[in-house]
């Protein structure tokens, strides 16, 4: 029967029975029918009372009903006791009417708590008759005095305690919500906040004793267990209550464990600390066992197991045996004797039966201890010399010492009904505690400072200090900020989070730092480190004992119990499903480990956090972990900082080691592990020793680094290991499609293999399919190949310079070699014979980079290669015995070739040909059999005269590049190739007419040709053309262009005004009219235009447009209105124009490269209070001599851009089209962005901000600079037709770096012009001081 009760209860609290056990599903129809009958009976009974068919009794005193709508666990009995104590404290003798379920547990508990006082307790199902009997025996108090009490209570006044009378003054009706036979004056409904409505059905299908609309009858609602439910759930409960009665006041209650007593002596007092670090078996037959168990866990028990019975259940002998068996099992698993804890209700039903558990300690949990707890604290102080700290909050210690004033009045109320002995014991305790020195809130002006002082004192007394192990580690704060977003501690769900990245990136360090930060919020926590290393040997798919060992280890650690033994694979769920835990599973490399240790979120209690670190993303995905933090490589600045802290224990490095440090960072590829290991090995060494060790590092991996990196490789399948070696030796920095083609006939399963390597962080594949392997992993792969054989010619790949030289010069290559990758920059010259490749019949991939190779005699043979990439090939033609039918890629840049081969070759696999800079190349062979060719590059083949007509067969050709072929004259006239999209024949100075190219072409470049005009006949034919570069000195006019153009280049042409056909382009975005020496004005262009380049237009005087980017390099005749418009923000991003001084609009300017802004002076940056207008932008300016250096004129270079990207609040990195210019720089920067995580620290006490401008270049000099503070809006006006340019301000790539402090009150910003056409913006970090950093 008890099992059936449990099943019915589980059904009642389950909304969806689809996945319920078969027994549950089979009972649902019967329970549904019974629930319907109950509902009908309930309605009939209620109707009979409403129609007065059933009589309701009115008692002569006020009646307070305490009831509920659902099954037990709502806190009715404690509320009854609370109201009774309230009545007693006001001198009213109450009568409690209770039905007396089962063994009368509730009545007995009330009797024990209220013994010795005037409270009467009437027990019986007919409570009207029981009340009548009590009134007859004790009498009834004067109703008028009782009314006075209720009036004062409602007015929140304090009622004076008078001499008690035996006459009953009020009735408290226990469980009276459905007891309609008695009228009541106040209806209190109690709700179990953990699950107030269950599945929403009436009993027995659900837990409801009445439908929810019955809430309308209640005068007060009390939500119980408020401390155990999330805030959102509480709001939902409130919303439901107010949905039925909007005016009902809602109160909240919770049960606080106070003390324990031994089941053999109900007068004993056992402190809650007795359960600390103990194994506990919770036994209960109450309505809300979950709350009882959770309270025991909060006390600090090490293990908590539970044995639940239905509410009001009377224990029998067989139940005691069940308890004994369960306790014995706990003892065997935890190697410690458990303590059995029951509730007071369980004890009151039958104390004797619990005493029969004499082999175990049985304690009873009490939640009504009051001042007894203070007595116990003082006992511990005296007996165990424990520290006691006193805090007197909003009260004078003398009031506590003498029990006077308001405190004394409250004390007297608390003592009502207590014996004189108890009163004296409490009074002595209060006097004693008032004499202990402590903190008095009345003595503190700031409560926050008092709390800080108390926290410091507690930490000092406990000798507990927060972990500082990870303070100052480079980049750690950013990692933890991002992880805090994923872990979401405010959420009560169980959340599993992954930390993923390559070996040595710092995953474990991040996980440990996060664990240290979060662990203070968790009682049960465990960092299970290095699963890969410690458990690899015991893991096996069917190794049951090994799995149990893993679970035992986790349980022992998290429960702080040595030699914990898991008996079955459900042990973790059994022990932890009701506990809020923090678990870190570090370096997981096998899916089985997660299945064993954290199979499901249901294994852990609400609010638990499981954090998994791994190199293999597939493991996380397979385990349905979607919140994954990818640990990326540190920036170059961060990498240097990590190295400095390892090698010098400080930053910056000593003089003479900066460049060597950068070499180390480059060698380590910014990998934190490599930086830390190498840096430590260089600590304290001289410059010469640094050079010596760096040379060794460049040839071989450090052993510690190799051991870490090799783990991922060793876990791969054999075919994936082979793929790893192919990429490390040949295909690093290649596209996925190219690699797939090269390895198409292998058994390497390239597609899945690449996914595996990427998921294990062994390669990175960009969104556009570019494969990159980290330099240390590449070195690992090459070292693995080196160990294949002591003879280089017998290895799979040849990559080391000396090995390749020996094999080729000595002709020792064998059939084992399938790939050669030769970087000739490491070798000045190589001479090989014509028979060098004879022995390498299986060679498939040959790559010579920057080769300076000489042939001792003509080369006769090359194997059947798939990849032939030979830079600076020395021969006039390819070997006659070379058969290119397997070729996929042919790259022969900078070669001495005059021709490739004779005749027509069968080329079914060939995709790409690149013969760029082969200046002797005279002809292209017949390519009619290369029907799969996609790219043909002939750039700067200066001797090439003709592109053969066989190209007309290349229907898959996408790109034809013949840039700089100065002698090219003959091009097939009708190249209507369906796939051809890009044609570049710029610099073909003898080309006079446009060939009839594919109608699908998108880019056509024919700059510096002899073409005079763009024929009208093709403007409609080339409807898909987007980019047209046609500028040349031969271009005299331009009357027609395709309407779909977005980019147009007509530079060096003879145009005097912008042609009408150009003005009419509706989608034009980018226009170049550079070096148009006759061009006078520019206006009336399409509003779509965003970028204009008009450099060296020496006649240009007028530019009238609002635009994003504008360069007017060497335009010395510009009028004043144009210059004013450019300087005053008619340009949204950048502009360049001649100029010699800082414009007047810049309020802060200086000679040289620095400018200081006073933050408190007029026009300075000030932090406005909330609600005021805030300065949100800064404009920067600088100028320097014009480029090239021999031109001594000076230019302004303006850059206007948001310093903060709107999406991620980082700094912009912008490409600059001019080299080595000096800048006027205008950038919008919200210095005090409240939503920007990068600006978390703001020092509002700064007096000034210093901006420093610097540049990198040869002979460049900053002549002046300026900063202008901008408001939130920038209004523009012009007499010209100006478009609004502010809404389309696209951001470039982003890069963030810190800025050095200047005397704690200044900040430095850097503006760096790069000779590589790149501008880096470095953002001021507004923090008071820069923390010391340590490396990962």
From TrEMBL:
One of its GO terms (cellular component) is membrane. It comes from the Eukaryota. PROSITE patterns: TIR. Keywords: Hydrolase, Leucine-rich repeat, NAD, Plant defense, Repeat. Pfam families: LpxK, LRR_3, NB-ARC, WHD_ROQ1. Gene3D superfamilies: Helical domain of apoptotic protease-activating factors, P-loop containing nucleotide triphosphate hydrolases, Ribonuclease Inhibitor, Toll/interleukin-1 receptor homology (TIR) domain. Residues 274-462 form the TIR domain. GO terms for biological process: defense response; lipid A biosynthetic process; signal transduction. The keyword DNA-binding does not apply. HAMAP family: LpxK. This is TIR domain-containing protein. It comes from Brassica campestris (Field mustard).
């Amino acid at each position: 029967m008890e099992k059936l009760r449990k099943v019915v209860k589980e059904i009642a609290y389950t909304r969806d029975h689809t996945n319920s056990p078969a027994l549950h599903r089979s009972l649902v129809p019967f329970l549904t029918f019974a629930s319907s009958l109950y509902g009908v009976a309930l309605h009939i009974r209620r109707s009979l009372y409403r129609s007065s068919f059933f009589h309701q009794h009115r008692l002569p005193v006020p009646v307070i009903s305490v009831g509920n709508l659902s099954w037990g666990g709502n806190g009715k009995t404690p509320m009854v006791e609370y109201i009774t104590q309230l009545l007693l404290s006001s001198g009213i003798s109450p009568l409690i009417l209770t039905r007396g379920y089962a063994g009368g547990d509730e009545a007995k508990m009330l009797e024990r708590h209220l013994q010795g006082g005037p409270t009467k307790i009437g027990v019986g199902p007919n409570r009207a008759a029981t009340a009548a009997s009590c009134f007859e025996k004790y009498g009834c108090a004067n109703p008028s005095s009782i009314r006075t009490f209720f009036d004062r209570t409602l007015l929140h006044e304090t009622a004076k305690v008078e001499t008690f009378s035996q006459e009953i003054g009020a009735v408290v009706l226990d469980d009276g919500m459905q007891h309609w036979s008695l009228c009541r004056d106040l209806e209190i409904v109690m709700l179990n906040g953990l699950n107030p409505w269950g599945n929403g059905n009436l009993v027995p299908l659900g837990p409801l004793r009445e439908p929810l609309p019955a809430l309308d009858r209640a005068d007060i609602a009390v939500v119980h267990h408020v401390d155990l439910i999330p805030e959102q759930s509480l709001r939902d409960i409130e919303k439901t209550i107010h949905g039925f009665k909007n005016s009902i006041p809602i109160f909240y209650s919770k049960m606080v464990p106070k003390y324990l007593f031994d089941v053999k002596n109900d007068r004993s007092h056992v402190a809650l600390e007795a359960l600390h670090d103990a194994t506990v078996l919770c036994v209960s037959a109450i309505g809300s066992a979950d709350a009882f168990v959770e309270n025991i866990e909060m006390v600090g028990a090490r293990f908590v197991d539970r044995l639940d019975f239905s509410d009001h259940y009377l224990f029998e002998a067989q139940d005691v045996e069940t308890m004994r068996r369960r306790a014995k099992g706990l003892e065997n698993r935890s190697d410690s004797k458990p303590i059995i804890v029951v509730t007071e209700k369980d004890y009151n039903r039958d104390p004797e039966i619990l005493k029969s558990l004499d082999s175990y300690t049985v304690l009873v949990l009490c939640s009504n201890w009051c001042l007894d707890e203070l007595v116990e604290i003082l006992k511990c102080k005296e007996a165990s010399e424990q520290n006691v700290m006193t805090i007197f909050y909003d009260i004078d210690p003398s009031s506590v010492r003498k029990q006077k004033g308001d405190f004394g009045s409250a004390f007297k109320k608390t003592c009502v009904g207590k014996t004189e002995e108890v009163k004296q014991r409490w009074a002595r305790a209060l006097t004693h505690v008032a004499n202990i020195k402590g903190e008095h809130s009345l003595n503190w002006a700031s409560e926050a400072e008092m709390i800080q002082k108390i926290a410091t004192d507690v930490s000092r007394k406990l000798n507990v200090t927060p972990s500082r192990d990870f303070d100052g580690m480079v980049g750690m704060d950013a990692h933890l900020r991002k992880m805090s977003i994923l872990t979401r501690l405010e959420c009560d769900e169980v959340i599993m989070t992954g930390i993923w990245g390559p070996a040595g990136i710092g995953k474990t360090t991040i996980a440990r730092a996060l664990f240290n930060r979060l662990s203070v919020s968790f009682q049960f926590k465990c960092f299970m480190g290095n699963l890969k290393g410690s458990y690899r040997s015991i893991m096996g798919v069917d190794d049951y004992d090994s799995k149990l060992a893993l679970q035992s280890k986790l349980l022992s650690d998290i429960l702080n119990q040595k030699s914990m033994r898991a008996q079955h694979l459900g042990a973790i769920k059994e022990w932890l499903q009701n506990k809020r835990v923090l678990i870190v599973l570090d370096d997981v490399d096998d899916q089985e480990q997660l299945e064993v240790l954290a199979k499901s979120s249901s294994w852990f209690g609400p609010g638990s956090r499981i954090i998994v670190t791994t190199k293999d993303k597939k493991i996380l995905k397979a385990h349905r972990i979607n919140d994954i933090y990818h640990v990326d490589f540190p920036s170059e600045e961060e990498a240097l900082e990590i190295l400095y802290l390892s090698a010098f224990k400080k930053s910056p490095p000593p003089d003479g080691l900066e460049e060597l440090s950068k070499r180390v960072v480059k060698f380590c590829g910014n990998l934190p592990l490599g930086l830390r290991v190498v840096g430590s090995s260089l600590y304290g060494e001289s410059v010469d020793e640094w050079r010596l060790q760096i040379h060794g590092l460049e040839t071989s991996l450090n052993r510690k680094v190799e051991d870490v990196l090799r783990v991922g490789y060793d876990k791969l399948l054999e075919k994936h290991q082979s793929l790893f070696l192919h990429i490390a030796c040949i295909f690093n920095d290649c596209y996925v499609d190219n690699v797939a083609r090269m390895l198409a006939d292998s058994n390497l399963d390239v597609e899945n293999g690449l996914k595996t390597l990427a998921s294990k962080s062994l390669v990175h594949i960009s969104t556009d399919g570019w494969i990159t392997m980290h330099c240390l992993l590449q070195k690992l792969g090459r070292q693995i190949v080196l160990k294949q054989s002591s003879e280089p010619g017998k290895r799979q790949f040849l990559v080391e310079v000396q090995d390749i030289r020996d094999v080729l010069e000595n002709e020792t290559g064998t059939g084992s070699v399938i790939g050669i990758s030769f970087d000739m920059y490491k070798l000045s010259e190589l001479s090989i014979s014509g028979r060098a490749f004879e022995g390498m019949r299986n060679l498939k991939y040959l790559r010579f980079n920057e080769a300076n190779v000489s042939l001792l005699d003509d080369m006769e043979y090359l194997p059947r290669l798939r990849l032939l990439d030979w830079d600076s090939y020395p021969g006039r033609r390819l070997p006659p015995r070379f058969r290119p039918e397997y070729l996929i890629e042919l790259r022969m840049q900078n070669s001495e070739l005059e021709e490739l081969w004779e005749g027509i070759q069968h080329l079914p696999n060939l995709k790409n040909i690149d013969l760029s800079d082969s200046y002797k190349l005279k002809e292209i062979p017949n390519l009619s059999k290369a029907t799969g060719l996609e790219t043909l590059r002939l750039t700067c083949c200066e001797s090439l005269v003709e592109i053969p007509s066989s190209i007309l067969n290349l229907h898959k050709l996408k790109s034809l590049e013949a840039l700089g072929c100065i002698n090219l004259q003959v091009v097939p006239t009708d190249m209507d190739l369906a796939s051809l999209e890009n044609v570049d024949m710029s610099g073909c100075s003898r080309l006079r007419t446009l060939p009839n190219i594919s109608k699908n072409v998108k880019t056509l470049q024919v700059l510096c040709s002899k073409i005079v005009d763009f024929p009208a006949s093709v403007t409609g034919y080339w409807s898909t053309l987007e980019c047209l570069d046609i500028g040349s000195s031969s271009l005299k006019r331009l009357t027609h262009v395709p309407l779909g153009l977005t980019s147009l280049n007509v530079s060096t042409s003879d145009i005097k005004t912008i042609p009408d056909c150009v003005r009419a382009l509706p989608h034009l975005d980018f226009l170049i009219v550079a070096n148009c020496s006759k061009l006078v004005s520019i206006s009336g262009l399409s509003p779509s235009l965003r970028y204009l380049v008009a450099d060296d237009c020496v006649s240009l005087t007028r530019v009238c447009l609002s635009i994003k980017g504008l360069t007017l390099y060497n335009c010395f005749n510009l009028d004043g209105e144009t210059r004013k418009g450019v300087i005053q923000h008619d340009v949204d991003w950048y502009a360049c124009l001649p100029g010699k001084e800082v414009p007047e609009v810049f309020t802060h300017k200086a000679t040289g490269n620095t400018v200081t802004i006073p933050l408190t002076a007029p026009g300075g940056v000030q932090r406005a209070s909330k609600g005021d207008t805030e300065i949100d932008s800064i404009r920067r300016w600088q100028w320097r001599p014009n480029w090239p250096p021999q031109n001594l004129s000076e230019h302004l270079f303006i850059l206007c851009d948001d310093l903060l990207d709107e999406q991620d609040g980082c700094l912009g990195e912008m490409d600059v089209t001019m080299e080595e210019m000096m800048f006027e720089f205008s950038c919008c920067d919200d210095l005090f962005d409240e939503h920007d995580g990068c600006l978390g620290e703001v020092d509002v006490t700064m007096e000034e901000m210093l901006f420093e401008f610097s540049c990198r270049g040869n002979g460049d000099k900053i002549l002046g600079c300026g900063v202008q503070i901008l408001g939130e809006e920038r209004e523009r006006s012009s007499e010209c037709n100006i478009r609004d340019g502010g809404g389309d301000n696209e951001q470039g790539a982003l890069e963030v770096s810190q800025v050095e402090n200047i005397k704690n009150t200044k900040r430095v910003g850097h503006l760096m012009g790069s000779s590589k056409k790149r501008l880096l913006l470095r953002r001021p970090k507004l923090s008071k001081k820069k923390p010391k950093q340590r490396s990962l």
